[in-house]
Amino acid sequence: TMKNPVPQAASLLLEKLLLLVHVRPLPADSGVESSAPAAPGYYDTSCFKRGDLLEVPRTLFIHFGIYLGENRVAHLMPDILPAFTGDRRQIQQVVTNKRLILGVITKMASIRVDTVEDFAYGGSILVNHMDRLFKDQVLSSEEAARRAEKLVGATAYSLLWNNCEHFVTYCRYGAPVSFQTDKFCETVKMIIRDQRSVLASALVGLASIVCLGLAPSTTLPTIFIPFILWMAG
């Protein structure tokens, strides 16, 4: 028998939403919030140069950062804690999933500086892999690093308009863009166009309300898109 495509589509959409904001869903029987990062010295930083754009590919998303030298990486992460304290020691602690999710909901983030190990979290690292897409727009390495350093601190967060990829492309290429967000939006459009994915469409609307706020532009589609698809089916 064929499985119902609606729960599958909804599950896939939710997983993509979580992964795009760097949350790694844990197994249902796991009592641990996150696994430990790689041990210090796991990565050979001698091949990295100040101003390099570092990518850490995951299953469904890529995390980005700018290498500052001396085993330091500047990267943007959703985080609620800077809204409550200016204590650098607290903020600099590894961001938990709870802090991250609340940061997404409240549209708050921080551009922080971590070790390569904490930034990559055991994943493989690609260096300047995006340069091929911005052939004549690559800024000098020092300019990229200085831009990143200047932006360190609390900042607004938007899944669509200000995520970790927007940060690094601004620093290295002078233009904030996010290809993985564009790809995600195309996936959402495909799901919405599928008349069998009424539940997934409702999830998209609810997610937009959470991320973008309660407004006619988000509330009305949430109500009417599933209704229209249901009627059409």
Automatic annotation (TrEMBL):
Record field: transmembrane: 199-232
Primary localization class, coarse: cytoplasm
Assigned keywords, A-Z: Acyltransferase, Cytoplasm, Endoplasmic reticulum, Endosome, Lipid metabolism, Membrane, Sensory transduction, Signal, Transferase, Transmembrane, Transmembrane helix, Vision
Pathway noted in the entry: Cofactor metabolism; retinol metabolism
One cellular-component annotation, GO: late endosome
UniProt enzyme class: transferase
Pfam families attached to this UniProt entry: LRAT
Signal peptide coordinates: 1-28
Enzyme Commission code: 2.3.1.135
UniProt subcellular location: Cytoplasm, Perinuclear region; Endoplasmic reticulum membrane; Late endosome; Rough endoplasmic reticulum
Biological process, per Gene Ontology: retinol metabolic process; visual perception; vitamin A metabolic process
Membrane topology: Single-pass membrane protein
Active-site residues from the entry: C164
InterPro entries to which the protein is assigned, alphabetical: LRAT (IPR042288), LRAT_dom (IPR007053)
Catalytic activities: all-trans-retinol--[retinol-binding protein] + a 1,2-diacyl-sn-glycero-3-phosphocholine = apo--[retinol-binding protein] + an all-trans-retinyl ester + a 2-acyl-sn-glycero-3-phosphocholine; 1,2-didodecanoyl-sn-glycero-3-phosphocholine + all-trans-retinol--[retinol-binding protein] = 2-dodecanoyl-sn-glycero-3-phosphocholine + all-trans-retinyl dodecanoate + apo--[retinol-binding protein]; all-trans-retinol--[retinol-binding protein] + 1,2-dihexadecanoyl-sn-glycero-3-phosphocholine = apo--[retinol-binding protein] + all-trans-retinyl hexadecanoate + 2-hexadecanoyl-sn-glycero-3-phosphocholine; 1,2-dioctanoyl-sn-glycero-3-phosphocholine + all-trans-retinol--[retinol-binding protein] = 2-octanoyl-sn-glycero-3-phosphocholine + all-trans-retinyl octanoate + apo--[retinol-binding protein]
GO terms for MF: phosphatidylcholine-retinol O-acyltransferase activity
Domain LRAT: residue ranges: 53-180
Function per UniProt: Transfers the acyl group from the sn-1 position of phosphatidylcholine to all-trans retinol, producing all-trans retinyl esters. Retinyl esters are storage forms of vitamin A. LRAT plays a critical role in vision. It provides the all-trans retinyl ester substrates for the isomerohydrolase which processes the esters into 11-cis-retinol in the retinal pigment epithelium; due to a membrane-associated alcohol dehydrogenase, 11 cis-retinol is oxidized and converted into 11-cis-retinaldehyde which is the chromophore for rhodopsin and the cone photopigments.
PANTHER family per the UniProt record, alphabetical: LECITHIN RETINOL ACYLTRANSFERASE
Family membership: Belongs to the H-rev107 family.
Name of the protein: Lecithin retinol acyltransferase
Source organism (scientific name): Hemiprocne comata
